Amino acid sequence: PGPNVPPVYGLEVSDLQRWEEDVLKPALEIVESFIQGREPPAEPLRMEHDEKENKRSHRVCELCARLIIGDREWAAHTRSKSHLHHLKKRRKLEESGRAGGTVGDSGDTGTSDEDGSLPLP
Hints:
This protein is mostly helical. It contains three helices and three strands, in the order αββααβ.
């Protein structure tokens, strides 16, 4: 979440019999405090935010022939079913190439990472 994202508040919603006391009343108090410009009676939830995360990084996944923008998206892509399928396929091809005794094949694909990515400048 960035600076334009309002705070998020957690409310106890598991007991429907206590909906008005546990959810409605605290929610209305929080909204009223914002409208009146005063401090809400409840503490907002702490949101995880990685200061080192680069949302604008560009990486090319050569295995999947895709451009991925952002560190979080890159991490999600490298764990995706599609990417893992391509990675497994490439490893299988490399193993069969080595087993076949291919001359001159070093197995180097020219990528910067084992996962088949190339960072863009």
